[in-house]
Amino acid sequence: MSDKIIHADLEIGVIDLILLKKVIDDHAPKGEAGRLTREEGIPWDEVEIIRLEFLNILKIDHLWMLTGLTKLSLSHNIIEKIEGLEALVNLKELDLSFNKITVIENLNTLTKIEILTLYGNSISVLENLSSLEKLIIFSIGNNKIESIENVLYLRQFEDLRSINFAGNPCCKQVPDFREWVAAYLPNIIYNEYKMILIEEKEAAREKYAADIEHVLESEKIKYAERERLKAEAAEEALHAESFVEFLGTSALFDKMFDGDIDGQLLLSIPEQSELREKYEKYKQNFCDVTKRLFDVGQQMYLERQNEIQQFLKCVDAEKSRNQIQSQDIIEKFVDKKLILTEDMFRLYDMVEDDEAEPDTSDFERLMEDFHDGAKNTRNEFNTLINDTWMQLMKCEITINAQLEEVNENFSIVITDMLNAFLELVSSHFTELRILEKEWMEESYELALNIMNQYNTGSSSQQLINIEEEENTKVISKELEKLFSDKENVQQCCAGSHDYHNLQIDNREDRLVTRANEWLSNLVTNLARDEMIRDRAQVLEINKFLDSQKSEFDDLYDEPVLSVAAASGEVKVKEEESSVYDMLTTDKKIKEDDEDHDG
Asked: What is the Cα–Cα distance from 464 to 457, expressed in whole angstroms?
């Protein structure tokens, strides 16, 4: 791809709020629907498609607000780095073709991506795509990918069906790249947008059978590791809401020793069965405590969930009762409105059917009766509107107060439940620290005894003359250095102890922090959701009654205006006399029909 700027006469493009609003407005529906949409405004998180193409954009920015995006095109720009997309977790199609990207990165949160286009960039390695497990179409043509191993990288994507590597150096590494793809990527149906026929796949598999077998063997270890990571992720997801993930296993204990260089050095002392026995006992006791905490955490999680379900049932019941009351009020309003509407039409029919001539006393009395009746009917309707508003608002105020009280009581209960759980957490982690202290003291005492034995010569040969393997020599030298001085042993045990306590502290802090964040978010969201519901309900009440009043006002104004025009009380404008014109036209047609029959 050329290094020229796409539009040399344009300034560097910047994705800002002004640009995004303009693009969103441009994608709005046409005509009246589009006008209303633009007036009301489209919520940022409801925008699904954005195209920012041919704008000389250098940096991806300000897209974090568009969390509802499912399709994003940033093609034909001068973007150098993939960034700023982490919040677009609903994205299914991403087009970054014809840019200046050199590294694939920062896509790990976009797990719903199905179509990814990176055509026409400067990418040399396929990497950081493993989280895109739903990938179906992948275009990486006209880049700088040289190694054929990059193509094998795509074997991990089980749903991948279409690829395009055209224009990359790797395509020339094998005699027939299409045939090679058919053999090594059996799930691919389209290569460079051309279907791979079944007979092509069979011939390719037969040709590369031996090589494919070798690839499968080498993938077994990688596959096993991927499955392990998936299992861990599943375990974490399953128990994350109880905050005790992995505590049901030896994960915390193993983590303490995996990174503990000093502790591993102590455990490497040869032929020390007593030290090994104490280590195994320590591990068993430690894991018993974490398993007990795991079981308690799961049980208390279920109790919290049950409390939440009961709370939601209570809220739904209150809302249902309120909804029934509000519906009853609205139904009564509609019935009364219908009666008043019929009264208006009867008044109108009374004037229309009366044969009194204008400029007579009878006609004047008729007009007075009509105006008085229409005015009284309108006043009755306005009173009905006010009464209905008062009743609906009373219902809303009542349900709002009830829900706020229920939310407050629930917040107290759930807080007490979580605090009870955290107290148990604290006691269990205190047990772990006690066990760790005991292990440190015992291991220190044993290490001193071993040091004394080695220094007296009774066991020195076991230390430095074990086997002549390189790694054993290194370990022996480290142990010899360790046991050369009591202070070294003390520092080693203290360092191991500090590292273990750090892991224990970090795990407890993580548990407590996540639990408190969950509680804070739950309580905050309850208050926020109720405030949003209340405001929306009040707005809906006002909107409904305003529309009803406007509708009845139109019903009142048109007949009164038409009757006044017919009586000569006002001069009717052409655009205001539609009802009167319709009635006089109907009357003239009726008279013409009578004359014709005569």
From this structure: 11
Final residue belonging to a domain, choices 156, 173, 190 = 173
Three-class SS of residue 428? helix
Residue 580, CB-side half-sphere exposure with 13 Å CA sphere = 20
Identify the residue whose tokens are 């990165």. Answer: 105
Residue 72 lies in a domain: yes
Checking if the pLDDT of 139 tops 90, the result is yes
Residue 161 lies in a domain: yes
Lowest mean pLDDT among 219-233, 413-427, 494-508: 219-233
DSSP state of 59: S
Q: Is 519 left (phi over 0), alpha (psi -120 to 50) or beta?
A: alpha
User: Are the beta carbons of 208 and 180 closer than 8 angstroms?
Assistant: yes
* CA pair distance 365, 318, nearest whole angstrom: 54
Residue 51 lies in a domain: yes
The pLDDT value given to residue 29: 65
Q: Name the phi and psi angles at 51, rounded to 5.
A: -125, 115
More confident residue, 594 or 179: 179
User: Could you give the CA distance from residue 192 to residue 141 in angstroms, rounded to a whole number?
Assistant: 9
Lowest mean pLDDT among 71-85, 215-229, 272-286, 447-461: 447-461
Domain limits for position 142: 17-173
Tens digit of pLDDT for each residue in 146-170? 998 899 899 889 899 999 999 999 9
Q: What is the mean pLDDT of residues 417-444?
A: 94
pLDDT for residue 420: 95
If you search the block for the tokens 């399709």, which residue do you land on? 71
CA distance 71 to 91: 6
The tally of domains found in the chain comes to 2
Domain final residue, candidates 173, 197, 218? 173
Helix (H/G/I), strand (E/B), else coil: 170: helix
More confident of the two residues 407 and 553: 407
Distance CA 451, CA 235 (A): 43
Helix (H, G, I), strand (E, B) or coil at 208: coil
Q: What pTM value is reported for the model?
A: 0.58
Q: Would the pLDDT of 474 be above 80?
A: no
User: For the domain that residue 54 is a member of, what is the CATH number?
Assistant: 3.80.10.10
DSSP string covering 440-475:
HHHHHHHHHHHHHHHHTTSSHHHHH-S---HHHHHH
